[in-house]
Amino acid sequence: MKKKLFIKTYGCQMNVYDSERMIDVMAMEGYEETDSPENADLVVLNTCHIREKAAEKVYSDIGRIRKIKDTKKKNGEEMVLAVGGCVAQAEGAEIMKRAPVVDMVFGPQTYHNLPKMVEKSISLKAKGEKSRILDTDLSVDEKFDQLSKKAVKKKPTAFLTIQEGCDKFCTYCVVPYTRGSEFSRKVDDVMKDAIKLAEAGVVEVTLLGQNVNAYHGTSADGEEWGLPELITKLAKIDGFERIRYTTSHPHDMTDDLINVHGTVKECMPYLHLPVQAGSDKVLKAMNRSHNTATYKKTIADLRKICPDLALSGDFIVGFPGETDEDFEQTMELVREVTYAQAYSFKFSSRPGTPAADMDSQVAEDVKSQRLTKLQALLKTQQMDFNKSVVGKTLSVLIENTGKTPGTAFGRSPYMQAVQVSIGDADFDQLKGKIVDVLIKEGGPFNIQGVLA
Ligand code: SAH
Ligand code: SF4
Ligand code: F3S
């Protein structure tokens, strides 16, 4: 019987991508995925350290898995519990100390070694030896080489990591410490993976990086390519009809990249470009290297090239020193720029980051009030955006069956979730196709329409 792997993913899209790669490497060792830890021989928690809550959740999940592991042990069955990802990178030694039930801890740059680590853990255990493993090396060098071997599953959308890590050191953020310094994959390696995805039927590819628009990969002839050149080349691959990229930093939104939104039709009219705050004083304290004026100029330039661009962003409220006036400037910026959708968070103090030690930390209840206000505004804007497409015909990539019979789920060019009534049409014929959908209704979270 095949061995079973249960993997739980927390955090960002890059973690989702990493989990998929872990499933791939373990499949080569004969493991198949299961959706419950009770059935699993190997449990992997792929963790996120970005905010306090995310990190705490890991310890409560470890407690839950411990009970399952104990029960299995009583029945004579072994389970290997592995903690990977960004909490593992940041607090590896502490996890080993706090949670003896954890067999191995590994960081985001070492998960290609998972098969070796699992094998070692099992063989040490069989010999009755102490079997715990900690591998949080941060060098990225061989990871991607090891990961590209397995054929990909057939599905219409896929992530493709092209860049990892961050050298920006925003004062609130753990990513430079958990993912290491900025690293761009070579152009040829990206192209090879991309061609494999296209051959497997992928229609929409999302290029991933913590600072994806800072991409600077080396080409075969030794030249350095930026994201604009890479997107232009990827767009020529047969089968790719949609290209997205995330997450971008305003600092690296060059004119060439902005122009790609006008010249490459496969480059979708949607951009996640986090501003974080609307006060220049706060942006400076955050070490964001952009201010509201440069950010607004970038947005204006983008909208000149791509008038229907749907904009998404991230916001932090209650950064140390943020006054009511500073917060009001964030509200003002949102009103002026207008977002199709956005994520917003209360500032979470992260150990080891400069902002954790700053004076004038904002009280929790003030953060909560500000977040409620901001989210109400962003929700209205998202609703307005979704209503603005009612009556239009949008091209929708059909990804999945819908919630009810006779419907399918897809995404518009603007990343909206679309519920499509397909009538008597055969879903299997529609899956992976881009179809015209007449939009009939727009709600707060999704839009609905019929095949046009
Ligand atoms: N590389 C991306 C974002 C990575 S983290 C960028 O630079 O935009 C995703 C989002 O989490 C950030 O944009 C920020 O809004 C939020 N975030 C990061 N650290 C945080 C913290 N300490 N407290 C609250 N939110 C945080
Ligand atoms: Fe974090 Fe800033 Fe780097 Fe984004 S740019 S990952 S917010 S340090
Ligand atoms: Fe979280 Fe690490 Fe992503 S901290 S947001 S999983 S890069």
In short:
By secondary structure, the chain is α/β, with parallel strands linked by helices. Helix content is 37%, strand content 23%. It has four domains: 3-137, Rossmann fold (3-Layer(aba) Sandwich); 152-268, Transcription Regulator spoIIAA (2-Layer Sandwich), CATH 3.30.750; 301-388, Transcription Regulator spoIIAA; 393-451, Nucleic acid-binding proteins (OB fold (Dihydrolipoamide Acetyltransferase, E2P)).
Can you describe what's shown?
The model has no long low-confidence stretch (mean pLDDT 94). Helix 2 links the parallel strand 3 and strand 4. The protein has four domains: 135 residues, Methylthiotransferase, N-terminal domain (Rossmann fold); 117 residues, Transcription Regulator spoIIAA, CATH 3.30.750; 88 residues, Transcription Regulator spoIIAA; 59 residues, OB fold (Dihydrolipoamide Acetyltransferase, E2P) (Beta Barrel). The protein is of the alpha/beta class. The strands form six sheets. Strands 2-1-3-4-5-6 form a six-stranded parallel β-sheet, sandwiched between helices. Strands 17-18-19-21-20 form a five-stranded mixed barrel. A three-stranded parallel β-sheet has the order 7-10-13, sandwiched between helices. The structure holds S-adenosyl-L-homocysteine, iron/sulfur cluster and FE3-S4 cluster. The site of iron/sulfur cluster has 10 residues, from helix 6.
